[in-house]
Amino acid sequence: MNQNKEPRFTQEALLSALSSYFGEKIIQATKRRKRLHGGTVGEVFLVQGKATTSSSKELPYKIIWKYTQKWNRPGDPLSWRREYDWFHFSPVLNLGEYLHLPTCYYQEITEEGNHLWMEYLTGASGNSLTLAMLQEIAFQWGIFQQQNMHSLKSLEGKNTTNLSFLDSELSQWYHNPYDYDFLCSDQCLIPSHIKNTLRKNNWRGGFSIIYHYIRSDECDLPEHLKQMITHLNDSREEIFLKFSQLPEVISHRDFWIENIFYKGPIINIIDWDCVGEGYLGEDIASLIADDTPTRYLNQWFEPIFSSYRQGFLTNGKTFPLEKKDVVMMILIKYGYRLMGGYWFADSQKEKDDFVERLSIIYGWLKRY
Predict the structure, then answer these.
(1) Which among 29, 43, 102, 191 could disulfide-bond with 119, CB atoms 3.0 to 4.6 Å apart, if both were Cys?
(2) Whole-angstrom Cα distance, residue 53 to residue 302?
């Protein structure tokens, strides 16, 4: 999205959303908006003000407006409308008593993208989530995935199927999407120490600069950590053959602490842009390791994994997922990302944290 151009919505769309929100005709509304999240494709705003009903009542409101522009994601060209389609499919799911996704009050597709008007949710989120909360989240998510395995057949032919997503998370690091000369130029905003490394090495071709860096003498990470990541490529076929034997479940695919709002006992889950079929355990890998403070990783892994297992077994007879499977998923999802963070880090303190996180993952692989 052009960052100089703010996305816009029509007053008619706002009134339609508020009419559904209040369950009565809204004829007028004041509005002010606050950006909650903005990225290359998705923009999320809190819109609030006062709505006037046809009987002249004035009602305060808070509502979420999410705009996702059209884009051609490689291998997944309709991803920009996945959440839009999901709200049409989700009513057939069994979310249980405690899981909740935001109510969608109004949605529309325009030439530029899709607009969703949704419930504004609150609760403990991000680093305010305690281990006890995370265990309950994992437990309920295990129940959900087991209970809705039969719903996978209903996904066939819909814009929610993307089973190869985990594979693409690894593949993205093997390809260079940027012009090498631009990365080396003064116009590029990457740190100067990165540009200097690129200028003295000829890492052109199909692979990403992170791929080249970790395999070079320029990378000063401990050798065992470098080998842990590079081994992914050598053992890729074996790893995904093992994953293919796991049950296929409905996966959120962005199941991390910032997309969950715990308001006990209700668990609100947002951002369903990437939802689809996946392997058992992918979401728990994210819940355990995506932006979790490093100091908690070791003490949280087993309790969260165990709670997930217990939830899945509540209505199931077997749980074929092993701890090492989840560790491999974590490594696939975050290994190269942590490596890139280490290289781009501005301070030694940041570098040390990335090394510690990678060392913890290495320890898990040895332990499990």
Answers:
(1) 102
(2) 52
Co-location of 73 and 199 in the same domain: no
- Name the domain boundary from 120, 154, 175: 120
φ, ψ for residue 115, nearest 5 deg: -120, 130
Q: Is the pTM of this model over 0.70?
A: yes
pLDDT (tens digit per residue) in 2-58: 445 778 999 999 999 999 999 999 999 999 999 998 666 789 999 999 999 999 999
Q: Give the per-residue pLDDT at 157.
A: 64
Residue 34, burial from CB neighbour count under 10 angstroms (0-12, 13-18, 19+): exposed
229 within 8 A of 260, measured Cβ to Cβ: no
Tokens of 277: 């079929």
**How many domains does the chain fold into?**
2
In the 8-state DSSP scheme, what is residue 44? Answer: E
Question: Rounded to 5 degrees, what are φ and ψ at 184?
Answer: -85, -10
**Which bin fits 281, alpha (ψ -120 to 50), beta or left (φ > 0)?**
left
Do 152 and 29 lie in one domain? The reply is no
At 1 the pLDDT is 44
Point out which residues pair with 263 in neighbouring strands. 266
Residues 6+ apart with CB under 8 A from 201: 212, 216, 218
How many Å apart are CA 144 and CA 134, to the nearest integer? 15
CATH code, 93: 3.30.200.20
Reduced to 3 states (helix: H, G, I; strand: E, B; else coil), residue 17 is helix
Torsion (CA) 277, 279, 284, 288 in degrees, nearest 10: -120
Q: Tell me, what's the pLDDT at 158?
A: 66
Say whether 287 sits in a helix, a strand or coil.
Answer: helix
Query: Which positions of the chain have pLDDT values less than 50?
Result: 1-3
Shared-domain flag, residues 161 and 246: yes
Start-to-end CA distance of the chain, whole Å, equals: 43
